[in-house]
Structures are given as C-alpha cells and as structure tokens.
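Lab notebook, bench 4. We co-purified these components, and the gel suggests they stay together. Before we commit to crystallization screens, I want a quick structural picture of the whole thing.
Request: model the full complex, all chains together.
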Amino acid sequence: MRFELKGLKCGYSNQAVLKGISFTMEPGEVLCVLGPNGTGKTTLFKTILGLIKPLEGEILFNGENSIHWPRSKMAQMIGYIPQAHNTSFPFGVMDMILMGRTAHLGNFSSPTKKDRRIAEQAIDTLDISYLANRIFTELSGGEKQLVLIARALAQEPKILVMDEPTSALDFGNQLKVLSQVRQLAHQGLTIIMASHVPDHAFFYATKVMLLSQGGLFGLGKANEIITEEKLRELYGVNVKIIQTGIKSDYDDDSELRMCVPLQNKKGWGLK
Amino acid sequence: MKNNNENRNGLAESQTERNLRKVYFVVILLPILAFIFSFPLGRYPISIPDLLSALAGKIVPFVHGPEGVINTVIFQVRLPRIIAAMLVGAALSIAGAAYQGMFKNPLVSPDILGASSGAGLGAALAIFFSLNVVGIQVSAFVFSLLAVIAVYFLSNKIKRDPTLALVLTGILVGTLCSSFTSLLKYMADPYDKLPAITFWLMGSLATVSPKNVISSFVIMLAGGVPLYLLRWRLNVLSLGEEEGKTLGLETGKLRLAVIICASLLTAGAVSISGLIGWVGLIVPHLARMLVGPNYKVLLPVSIAIGSVYMLLVDDLARCLTSAEIPLGILTSIIGAPFFFAILLRGKKGLV
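Here is the predicted assembly.
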C-alpha cells in the first residue's frame, strides 16, 4: 500500500499551520516527525487521519483520494495510537482491544469469535497475554500504551499513526514499544510517528520530517537530515551527534548515531 | 507459550461465565420476584392464592379466576401500574446508561438534553388549557421531544466540541422550559390547576390506565431496541469523539441515533409518570459496578435493576402512608444517600 501526501496544506478554519507537505511512503517504512511544541505535528496527524479536512492538497492511498471515504473504510486503512490516557469507564483490556474491530463490523453487530481470535493474535504479537484479564484504567502508562497498540493491530490497518507513543513511558517501556514499532514495520506496516527525541529517529526511522515554526524544515533520511546545525536552529540547543560504533541494521553500512548535549559556560546544551 | 495461551483462555472464560451467571440472576429473577411481591401490596388486600388463580384464569384456558372486585383491582389497577413502574424505571435507566457513555461522563442523567423540562412544560400547558389525561400525556411527550430537537439544532450552531455544545444548550433549553413552566404556575388558577401542575411535576403513576401503558410501551420499544442493537458502538463512542472516529465510527450519525432513542425512552416514560429524577443516574452506576461498562451486559442489567428499583419505590409511594407520596420526592430521598454510598464504595473509574 503506497501512501502519498501531495501539496498538503493543513490547519484550522483557513489558518494554515503547515503547507506544501508532500511525501510518499512504501510498506515497511517508518516516518519520524520531529519538531518543537506547537509546530503542527498533531495537526498534520489529524489531517492524515481525516479528523480535520485538508485546506489544500491530497491524501492518497494507492493513488485514491481519501477525502470522501466513510470512517469505517478509513479505519481499515489507517490506525491511530493515541497517547496513553484514561477512559471514563473501566473497560476490560480484552474489550478495549476488541474495539479495534469496530471498523470491520456492521452497524448493529458485536465482535464475533473471529474478531476475538484476531484480538488474541494482537495480544500474542505484543506478548501481553498477562494483561488480557486486567482492567484498562488500572494499568500503568506503559501497559496502557501496549494495549492501545494491540487495539490498533486488531484493527488490521495498513498504516499506523502514533502521536508521541513513548512520551509517558519509562526507559524500559520506551524501548519495548519502539522495538515493537520496528517489528511491525518489518511485517509490512507503514508507520508514522511523532517524537521529541532525535535518537528515536536515528534508531527506528527510515525517513525523518523536521517541522519548525515556519513549517516544513527538512525531509529525508535521518543521517542526512538530523544535523547538529539543524537541531540548534530547531530547538535552540547545542548537541553533538556521535557515531556509536554500532552498525545500523536499516541503512546500508552506516553506524548508529546519537545526540549528546554539549556543555558550555552557561549550562548544558543551551545556546 | 501454548500453555500460557490455554491458561489465559481458561481464565477469560471462567471470568465471563461467572459474570454471566450473575447477570442472568439479576436480569431474570429479580424483576419476577418484585413483580409478584408487588401485587398483594396496597389498600385492597389480595392473597397470593387469589392472585395466582386470577393470573391463571387469564392465561390458562378453561380455568376461571375469581370474579368481581378482585379481578378489577388486579387487572385494571395494579397490573397496569406495576407494568408502568417497571417500564418507566427501565426506560430511564437505559436512556441514562446511553447518555453517560455518549457524554463520557458517569454523572449524566436522561434529562441532560432538556427532555424532562420539556415534558414538564408540555404537561403544564395541557393542564393550564384544561386538557384531559390523554391530552396531558401527549403534550408532555411532544414538548419533551421538541425540547431535545431544539437542543440538537442549537448545538449544531456552536463550533466547538459537539458533546460540550450539547450539554451547554441542554442547560439553556432546560432552564427556559422550567422558566415557562414557572410562569404558567404563576398564572394558573391556584385552587385547581396550580396543584395539578405541581403534582404532575413531582411524578406519580396514580393515573395510569392499560391504554396509556401500552402506548408508552410501544414508544419505549422504538427507542430501546435500536439502542440495544447499537450496544457495541456505544462502547466505542464512550472513548470520545476523535478516538471513536479513528476506530471507524461515524460519531455524528451515531450521536444523533442515541439522542433520538434516548429521547423517545425518556419522553415515553415521563409522559406517563411525570418528572422522576435520579433513577437514570443511579441505576446505570449500580449496573456498571455489578458487570462492568460493556454495554452488551450493561444495558440488560440496567433494565432489570431500573425496573425493580422503580417498582419498589412505587410500592412505597402507594403503601407508606394513607395518601400517595409523589414518586419524584421518593426517588430523590432514597436516591441521594444511596448515590453517596455508591461514591464512597466505588473504585476509581467505576462510578
């Protein structure tokens, strides 16, 4: 499934937040969107998900414009993983994951045995069977995030959109969630995620999009796009990008890179 | 891994089974018990054997039940009233459960969109213009729906979060309706119509007849059956507007469907019972504590608990004193402390 944005301009009531966004994603690709708060990451995602209408431009799935699709068709194509949150009601984890099947059900039907099997598969994929009988609202942030990912998998979309999937998680859960993301990409899903950590882009992304207050700031491979100068311009901090000596399994033959904040007289990493 | 799998499935099943047994018990047994228990209560004593033979006389061919007053009391007075109480309780509870999910807020009750205040205004108008019982019922029903329709169209004009817009316009229209009701009370004849309006607003089932029970039952079915069919989508809707949409829900259409159904249920109930608060707020809570928030079981259990609760309250209203106590007064006197107890006991998220 080829996913394509063509000259997309998005924002609210004719106030454009972003414009001129164009890119193409093939199955298995991971796009990481980096940018300071308020640069339009969420607006971009909402537009891609069809929650707000694009002001200009097209969103194409295999060349087909999605603008007039019904919600169920959209949801079969693209799944959304929100940040871990509390629901108002204490749904069981299994029910929560089964809700991912909604797009495949008729208006008046409830999940069947087949849907239950698909939900159980999603649980197995993420290896979270120990959560299956728990109550969603009683889980920790990391566990909730895993359940929400399982729900998105049960939805069986071709594209996954994740809004800062790791922002509420501890170190271990961050890595677990992100390696799941990479696993899913290996299985042929296209993944679009927002992040605040450039390292995530180095580790997990095949493509990186940088957003600044002025709009699109860069788009391309992580190693080419994320540079010390760009990060300084974007976030107003001094960092050094170092080669870790660990071979990246994505990119041809390059090494994995990491950002290290630089100390100067005024303080860590500040300009 | 495989072992782990079996273990999980085993656990999941035993838990649902246990839950289901609890559900069946509540759904089937309690309403039947309350139904039978309520017949003998009241001014005219009816013994259990009389009751059984009268019921048998109606149902089983060639068996003749007792004749005369007993028959009239059972079939013309008590039966319609018992059924009306159960219907009103069930309808308000389903409507409350549906709205609580739709508004993502467990503190919402069926009158949030002005259905009750609209019904109150309709009834007050009908009494003011000296219409008969049927006129009052029809007018209450129509104004109840009109109030909700007004809320829906006004809220569509507000370009904000649609559920918030609904709540705000609901308050607005509700307040307007009660102001006009107060105006009518102020202008009404203080010896005749003012008390009639006041008593109607406090709620009572004293005037129900077999006819108006049947008509409101049909209306309640028209609202209740689609809601039950939509039960899975109600779960998803309770996650919120955007999440629901990304899971494939046409939230706008579904919200409209829920509003129509819940309004039919509420209007059908209050048009025969008058204003009765608290039932639609408390019962879904109680049901959720018993079986969790999944509408698949929440709706039937709400029906069961709601019908039993309303019936028992109406029994109290009939029998506690020599004069009837208005229902709305009893539901809030019983409901308020009961609700507080639930809040004290409830786990976070459950209430």
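Chain B has a mean pLDDT of 88. Worth comparing against the SEC data before the next meeting. The CA atoms of residues 152 and 256 of chain B lie 8 Å apart.
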